[in-house]
Structure formats: C-alpha cells, structure tokens
Amino acid sequence: MKIKIWSDIMCPFCYIGKRHFENALAQFSRADELEIEWKSFQLDPSLPKMKERVDVYEYLAKSKGFSIQDSKEMHDNVVKMAKNVGLEYNFDRAVIANSFDAHRLIQFAKTKGKGNEIEEVLFAAYFTNGLDMSNLDTLIEIGSSIGLSPLELETILHSEDFSNEVHNDSIEAQRFGVRGVPYFVLDNKYAISGAQPSSVFLEALEKAFIS
Fold it and tell me: The whole model's pTM is what?
C-alpha cells in the first residue's frame, strides 16, 4: 500500500505530524509492506530567498492579520506540542525564506531512496538549528550528511533540475484538494489532514489496508 505525504519543511505541524505518523507505524503490524512517498508543497511560494532576517513572529502576524502577542502565544503552543513528541523548536532562530530549492533537494533524495531521511534532517535544520533553507551551500551540506554525493548536489542545486517534480507535486495536490499540510493520502482512498494523533493514523492505516 502506498502512502503519499504532502509537506513543507517550514511547516511546524508537518514535523509534529511526521512523529505522530511514525508512532502509528511502530504499532502497525504490516508497516514493512508500506511504500511511503514524501510530496512537495510550499506554504508560501512568494517568499524570496533570504536577504535579511525576518522575525518569525512578525511574519505570521503580518501574513495572518494577528497581533505580535497572539503570534508569540501561538508559537509557544506549537513549541509545547513539539516537545511532547520529543522535538525541539527554536523559533527565535528560524530563517524565513523560500523553500523551493529545499524541495528540489527532497526530490533528488527520493531518487536515491532517501526521502524520509532528507525530510528528517531538513526539519531539524530549520526548526532546531535555525538554518537557511534557501542557501544552496547549506542544502549541499545537509544532503551530504545523509550520504548524498556533494558533487551531484552541487550540480543539481545550481541548476533547475527537479523543478518540474516540485511543480508536479503541487499540481497533484490540487487534484486531491489539498489546502494545507501535512496531508496524508492512503492508497488513494483515505486522506488525513493535519498533525492528527497517532491513534487516528493507526486506525486509518488498518482501515485502508483491509479495504
């Protein structure tokens, strides 16, 4: 059974949802029979590459029409949610920048069978370590850390390679009616939106597998 997961590595709920999903997989007796594919989805394609640091609290407040205080409270709540699943979020260090090149890196990593590994290190790089997901040298270093060839990474990331794959994932997301991420599609039959509890994922896995 194939599971497609649309995600943006700058989406805080996507990393939390990844952990919830992994916890469900650990309880699912037929997890080794699943094929999992990560799909690209940019929450804000209009973001430029980083030129100067943008305060994450101000960014959310401006984009959603919140006050700065409301934005900080929302981020604090997300930090607590992340901590509950063993994740460390450092929003004070977050770099708000375009994630398109990071998605191209994900697409390349998938061709090497390292889709899950690249998602994990990119999430950690952004949310925990405060790295710039639009910096090509940073992305090359991140890709190299999971065993991808630095020479291939440099060639690919300094070109337009895998751009079509990123766009195609977005087009496919539209067909499924994806409006936000994370978004999980099980066997093209069942969809789960958001960082749902592990129990929800487990129930859906069992239902999808026998249907």
Answer: 0.95
